[in-house]
Amino acid sequence: MSSQKFKKLNKIPVDLSANCAGIESPNPFWLASAPPTNSADQVMRAFDAGWGGAVWKTMGEDPPVINTTSRYGAIDIGGCKMAGLNNIELITDRPLEDNLREIREVKRRYPKHAVVASLMVPCERKNWHDIVRRTEDTGCDGLELNFGCPHGMSERGMGSAVGQVPEYVEQVVGYVKEIAQTPVLAKLTPNITDIRYPARAAQRAKADGVSLINTINSVMGIDLDTLSPRFSVGGKGAHGGYCGPAVKPIGLHMVSQIATDPECKKLAISGIGGISTWSDAAEYLLLGACSVQVCTAVMHYGFRVVEDMLDGLTRWMQEKGFQKTEDFIGKATPNLVDWKKLNLHQKTVAKIHPEKCIQCDLCYVACNDTAHQCIVRPIDLGTDGDPKNLRLPKVLEELCVGCNLCALVCPVEKCITMETVETGHPPLTWEEYVAKGMTGYGEVYKRFHD
Amino acid sequence: MNPAATAKAFQEITPPLKTEEAYQEANRCLYCYDAPCIQACPTHIDVPRFIKQIASRNTIGSAMTILEANPMGHSCARVCPVEALCEGACVYWAWQQKPIQIGRLQRHATDFLHSKRLQPFEAGPDNGKKVAIVGAGPAGLSCATYLRRLGFAVTLFEAKPKPGGLNTYGIAEYKMTQETSLDEAAWALDLGVEIRCGTRVGEDISFDRLEKEFDAVFLGVGLGATETLGIAGEGLHGIHEALQFIEYIKNHEFSQIPPGKTTICIGAGNTAVDVVTQAKRLGTPRVVMAYRRGPEEMPAYDYEYELAKADAVEFLWNVTPVAILGKTRVEAVRFAKTHSLKGKLTLLPRSEFDIPCDRVVKAIGQKKRRDLLSLVADLELDAKGRVRVDPVSLETTNPRFFAGGDAVNGGSEVVNAAADGKRAALGIFRYLFPGSQPNPEHAAWIDTIEPTPKKPETPHVLAKV
After folding, report:
1. Model ipTM?
2. How far is residue B199's CA from residue B164's CA, in Å, rounded to a whole number?
């Protein structure tokens, strides 16, 4: 009866194991240093759910910090809850000894998982030596130096106050490296003009890697009735650290900057920032991260989000023929170049597929009002024709600059595609154009002044 | 009716989701923790997980989540009474909002896998044991899939020419095409299941022989012929059993089937709705559904009743046929009005009336297969004629025989049959390999058999220092 033949599902075994700066884990998915890693119970439940590693919530010196109540705020964009999350929570408020005892116990029960201790103490050699010694005694797999938190602790000269000054980064990493036995990651703040400077400083001081991005300075909003910040502590608010899906492009950019910087070649990268799905993680790894750290997605849905991260990444690797994570880590970095290296003779134009078009005409208004005025509609031209198609937009290809805007606003998948057009011109970059004395450019689109 | 018009009339009433639609709907799912939809599904598919896998564009992973728990997930996505099961349990109801379209999302995932012609399962290494399955309906196919995965040699015996059981022969074509059912069966058969279609166990081959030749037997025999009305004129031409009527439509060119003038359907269950809605689609001008009780007691699901109403079907409540009139062909049905008192029906005196018609379809439930089942040695049935089984293993009173689906539950949904097939596969494994456990790769589906209500997660308690 069965005349149907099926192909086998690709089940080639893939090795998800990760090695970031010498810190090994069964997979590249780590929990970031944050509320989800505040206790042994949480970390062990996360490992049971499938997480490969955890960076313990940052530990400092006793007496422990005191936190405010009311700590998190979020923005919802359209129907998407918690597109961005912001917090003013400080480092752990548990006594150091409790945390260290728990780290030791977790490591004993989960020897193959990565347990990284995040640390933050004042910028003095003695303070750092003390906490590094005590922490490494637990058997943890590595240290992450928190130079990233932009709220609260930064006012006390720690966190991002360190990360924003490359000299301080170099100094503190240096103190730690004097005695550290385990790999050292410097966690960087994105609240800086050029992330490569603190990264280079970390490398100079022989850090084994960097983790980034920490959270971004932010104010979530103002309550229009009370005029207080949208989450406040009794009416007053402080700026917080912003994270979640909305920050992913910023994280990807900063990771790629370090991954492509010749002066940061020795640094391993643990990628952080808006990772919610397996594909987000794959993008970070493709840009050079060796592990990824997740917080907001877990704070939204629980440890179980790792199930599809593992499943989806595995299936993608099988489909692409990658057998281990090293096979694709950094594979996309060569494709990220300076603007001056882009081909000016590459010509792309928009193509609207009329059979898919629902005639919302968002592409038309976007192009006409704000881009390059190269979409027309029969109804505006007074053209006779099928009355059903009077609103059907059409691209004037000779005017189209190929900016992508119409395809970006179009709600229908694959209704507007961007098509490459052969120009017959050899590739020409801005760099080459300048070198040739501004000659050799054959017009591939109609410029406004023409 | 012309072919184009009938083809349009029989179009699927629930079309597939477009990719963007599926993505948006998947993102609307809240991804509830310990979600009620999982509990509401008899096969306990991890619904939020498969939906989030659609959202993350891991569509193959999504289909695998579905099919791991329910190998009949491709058809269940179309024929499940989702309003009464998963979608009925969706938390959006509590919020007075539209529930997530779980059935259509499920279809999106399994359609994708099928369109790629991918086999989701793998046959296990041969374990040396042979199992016969009687009936290639949803229970039998589900059981066959898991048994092959566990490494059993499986032979399916099917009386009909095609596999799929009621999925292939008994579902209104506008709900699910026969092709879909056969596509789904092909997944199971492709695992190396031997199938003998057109073979009636009990006639062409005896149960005793199955018992001798196989290590275990699974009975997924379903139900039998429609019950009789027991009134005069029941043997006239133009009187059909509901399932035969549906099967006939599914196996003929719709436009070639004479619509007639008036069709009367006796009964008001879900099958009756399939009858009247399809009669309407054939172009029958007057279609009447007659039921001995009122609409509040009709066994069909509410949305099925809505379908019939939308098709301008006439309803005759509180009537019962007392005779079918005609010389050789049916010409009319004589009804009497009924009165229900504390659930007991009485006929109202002098209330009889005739409705002229040229076709009568009986949709008053199917008989149990007592005669067939009496051929199995030591097999006990309960008072209602259902096969008596151990609720955990689905083992019958004859230890080599297991049973599931309609023959055990008296007539339920495809998804219940699929759940039974899964449970019985594990029951057969445990019976033939006492004391041993299936390999760990089977844990995922075995965990969906008896999901104990989720216990609060036990915190990891640390040793006191």
Report:
1. 0.93
2. 14
